[in-house]
Amino acid sequence: MIPAGKVATYGDVAHQAGLPGGARRVGRALRGLPGDTRIPWHRVINARGEIVVPGGSGARALQQERLEQEGVHFYSNTRLSLRQYRWQPG
Questions:
Q1: What are the pLDDT digits (tens) for 30-78?
Q2: Residue 71: inside a domain
Q3: Residue 90 lies in a domain
Q4: Closest among 83, 77, 13 to 43, alpha carbons compared
Q5: Residue 51, Cβ neighbours under 10 Å: how many?
């Protein structure tokens, strides 16, 4: 449900799923997705506004590339402004 050009934290997703405190569960679930998934996993970041996929993996570059294609700008190598891009449902 996270729209293009917006992000949510792992904790935000857990809260929306009725699992407050379940951020790590969300991370594990996203890591288990098949490579051809249509779920927009790239829109989920940590509570500091950072990409947390390991640096040596192609998934990290892919996540940043997809977010940039949606108009999200990073102000450091892997950090963005949650104030600007965080999705607020409702």
A1: 999 998 999 999 999 999 999 988 767 788 889 999 999 999 999 988 8
A2: yes
A3: no
A4: 13
A5: 22
- Residue 14, phi-psi category: left (phi > 0), alpha (psi -120 to 50), beta (remainder): alpha
Q: Which residues pair with 44 in a beta bridge?
A: 8
Res. 84: pLDDT tops 70:
yes
* Nearest-angstrom CA–CA distance, 15 and 61: 27
3-state secondary structure of 46: coil
Token pair listed for 85: 């891009």
Handedness of CA 19, 84, 45, 8 (dihedral sign): positive
Please state the φ and ψ torsions of residue 61, each to the nearest 5 degrees: -65, -40
Mean per-residue pLDDT over the chain, rounded: 93
The tokens for 4 are 């293009």
The answer to whether residue 2 is domain-embedded is: no
Q: Cα–Cα distance between 27 and 29 in angstroms, integer? A: 5
